[in-house]
Recover the amino acids of this structure.
């Protein structure tokens, strides 16, 4: 794919991340602040809360979406840096193929985790 | 010279003699500073007094020809456009423009930049070849349309921007601010119809996607061309074209001949001096 | 004829040898560094949080490993990096899509450039990022 297309997706993915990761960060880390307005939990990483989120369609869908967007955005940015180090022809191919493979593998793995989590949650109660 | 010297200034010049030196080295000379002396004047003085073999490129000595770009106290500038007094120090360090190979002393090899420039087709691309080769009238363009590219057309191809750009510093494949700025200059010219052709090159890995708005090119440009602006506007055009949101326009037509009475006895044009009749 | 010219490309030195010229260069460098840091963290994060798919024990175990002041501080750095990267990303998006750079103008000395034009934006980004990062710091360490 040409750089123009990739770059456009990069910007689009950035936008998705902005919204979803902003939400994620707020829920996970600004829990004290959220507590002030009476939403959110004090222990977002406690198992029952993790399990509750894993069971929700909304969280599962946004996790997978965020996973894909962030992987693409991150790996494209990384590729930018590598490409600007002016690698040779072969190295370029290796970078392109390598980064794509790693990205897809991580996406599959993360998606599996998001889809398998509800089962684990019901198992552990 | 009637001007008396104000003080002595020290010039550090980076010298390189091909075939003799293995690597460039610094050399220091003191010269008398006279009022109004530019770095270029200083180099001439230096050549006259103590370094007769010093080589650099210059021509117009008025910021028009783009020959004298060099690294002056760490910043790419035109030697002829830089007053020594404005540097605010008595030490002037002059080196060849980085990111270009050194031919000799302060002479950079600008050829790669010009080759890329040419690859991006810096000329009007139109179908009416006959009219272009042998104009009968002029192409219609409003003052407003002129403003879309006028700023970018002030570029003198000095290469200062290329020397400042962090991407050019590592990536020889990146077209760089000068050629990209010029491609945008023609892309936005209402008389041009070459967007589709330039797009083929610009959408690839050497195009504006390698620019991350470090802004250096615009900071150093001695002509206020603002190549960084041109490049971002170019990305907008290319992306909106990808999303099929770009407005299509046809290249401007030739103006209609004026109606009404014309002046009689219009003097004939002088004979052609170039091309076939 | 083989060129006898001496190569003079700055190389990777040219990436960081900034600050001599301008503001936007610092933002560029910081954006790259935070980006690399975030990517590294993110890959790690995928593995750590995937333990939830196995069950509560492995989740608790993973959380055990990544608890402690050192990890808390590291996480805070990630948070701060994200805040900067996100806000600067908005700035870059606005600029690189040609919205914040202005239209071509007649270059009259002293030249006004798109870099100068967008400097207010850059300062706003830094300021908001700083405020949010401090706020997040309070949330991370004090209010817990
Ligand atoms: S854009 Fe400016 S710095 Fe670059 S070549 Fe043209 S005049 Fe020189
Ligand atoms: S704005 Fe773009 S082209 Fe100009 S110096 Fe920065 S990276 Fe290079
Ligand atoms: S000598 Fe022509 S631009 Fe300096």
């Amino acid at each position: 794919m040409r750089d123009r297309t990739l770059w456009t997706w990069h910007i689009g993915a950035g936008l998705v991340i902005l919204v979803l990761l902003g939400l994620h960060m707020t829920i996970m880390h600004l829990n004290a602040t959220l507590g002030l307005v009476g939403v959110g939990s004090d222990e977002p990483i406690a198992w029952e809360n993790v399990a509750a989120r894993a069971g929700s369609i909304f969280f599962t869908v946004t996790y997978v979406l965020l996973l894909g967007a962030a992987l693409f955005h991150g790996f494209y940015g990384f590729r930018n840096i590598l490409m600007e180090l002016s690698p040779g022809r072969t190295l370029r191919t290796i970078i392109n193929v390598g980064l794509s493979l790693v990205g897809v593998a991580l996406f599959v793995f993360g998606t599996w985790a998001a889809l398998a989590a509800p089962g684990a949650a019901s198992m552990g109660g | 010279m009637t001007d008396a010297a104000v003080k002595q200034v020290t010039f550090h010049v980076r010298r390189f003699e091909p075939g003799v030196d293995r690597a460039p080295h610094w050399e220091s000379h003191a010269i008398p500073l006279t009022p109004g002396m530019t770095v270029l004047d200083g180099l001439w003085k230096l050549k006259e007094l103590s370094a007769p073999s010093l080589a650099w490129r210059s021509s117009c000595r008025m910021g028009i020809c783009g020959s004298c770009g060099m690294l002056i106290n760490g910043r790419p500038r035109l030697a002829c456009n830089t007053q020594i007094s404005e540097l605010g120090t008595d030490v002037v360090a002059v080196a060849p423009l980085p990111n270009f190979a050194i031919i000799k002393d302060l002479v950079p090899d600008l050829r790669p930049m010009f080759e890329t420039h040419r690859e991006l087709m810096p000329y009007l691309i139109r179908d009416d070849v006959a009219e272009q080769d042998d104009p009968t009238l002029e192409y219609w363009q409003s003052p407003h349309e002129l403003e879309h590219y006028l700023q970018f057309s002030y570029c003198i191809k000095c290469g200062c921007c290329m020397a400042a750009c962090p991407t050019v510093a590592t990536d020889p494949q990146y077209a760089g601010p000068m050629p990209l700025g010029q491609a945008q200059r023609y892309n936005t010219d209402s008389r041009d119809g070459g967007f589709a052709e330039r797009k083929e090159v610009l959408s690839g890995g050497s195009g504006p996607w390698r620019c991350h708005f470090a802004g250096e090119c615009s900071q150093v440009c001695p002509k206020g061309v603002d190549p960084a602006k041109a490049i971002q506007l170019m990305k907008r055009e290319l992306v909106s074209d990808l999303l099929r949101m770009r407005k299509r326009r046809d290249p401007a037509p030739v103006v209609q001949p004026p109606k009404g009475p014309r002046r009689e006895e219009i003097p004939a044009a002088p004979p052609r001096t170039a091309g076939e009749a | 004829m083989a060129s006898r010219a001496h190569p003079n490309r700055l190389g990777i030195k040219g990436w960081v040898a900034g600050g001599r010229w301008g503001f936007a260069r610092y933002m560029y460098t910081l954006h790259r560094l935070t980006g690399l840091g975030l990517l590294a963290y993110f890959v790690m994060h995928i593995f750590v949080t995937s333990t939830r798919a196995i069950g509560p024990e492995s989740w608790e175990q993973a959380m055990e490993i990544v608890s402690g002041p050192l990890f808390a501080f590291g996480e805070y750095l990630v948070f701060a990096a994200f805040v900067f990267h996100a806000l600067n990303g908005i700035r870059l998006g606005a600029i690189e899509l040609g919205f914040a750079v202005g239209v071509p103008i007649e270059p009259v000395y002293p030249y006004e450039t798109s870099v100068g034009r967008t400097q207010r934006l850059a300062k706003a980004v830094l300021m908001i990022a700083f405020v949010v990062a401090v706020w997040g710091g309070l949330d991370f360490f004090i209010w817990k």
Q: What stands out?
A: Chain C has one domain: 20-143. The mean pLDDT of chain C is 88.
